[in-house]
């Protein structure tokens, strides 16, 4: 199988909650993450082709940082678990220092990649 993604994606080994930055509501957790987008595993479908402002916290070594990103919903699908949805996003607004932190998280030892 050929991989056509531009950015390497790391699977989240532990739950990383994702919150809607506008409402504070938890919308799901990260399934995998790259410097250009994320796979969200959620308990409810999200609006197709919509823009979102998300907030989540990543730990790299002993550095714990909360990031805020603008994201465009690209696709969604029902997961095999009833009541769960997979939703793909690309980042449309992410600060350069946040990209660097995401990249450090992806490159940290022990990651599994998809």
UniProtKB/TrEMBL annotation:
Residue span, PilZ domain: 5-107
Pfam families: PilZ
Alphabetized InterPro entries for the sequence: PilZ_domain
Gene3D superfamilies linked to this entry: predicted glycosyltransferase like domains
Name the UniProt record assigns to this protein: PilZ domain-containing protein
Species whose genome carries this gene: Coralloluteibacterium thermophilum
């Amino acid at each position: 199988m050929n991989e056509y993604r531009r950015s390497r994606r790391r699977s989240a080994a532990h739950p990383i909650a994702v919150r809607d930055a506008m409402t504070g509501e938890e919308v799901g957790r990260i399934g995998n993450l790259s410097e250009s987008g994320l796979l969200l595993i959620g308990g409810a479908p999200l609006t197709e082709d919509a823009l979102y402002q998300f907030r989540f916290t990543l730990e790299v070594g002993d550095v714990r940082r909360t990031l805020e990103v603008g994201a465009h919903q690209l696709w969604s699908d029902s997961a095999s678990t009833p009541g769960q949805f997979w939703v793909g996003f690309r980042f449309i607004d992410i600060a350069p220092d946040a990209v660097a932190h995401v990249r450090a998280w992806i490159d940290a030892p022990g990651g599994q990649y998809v």
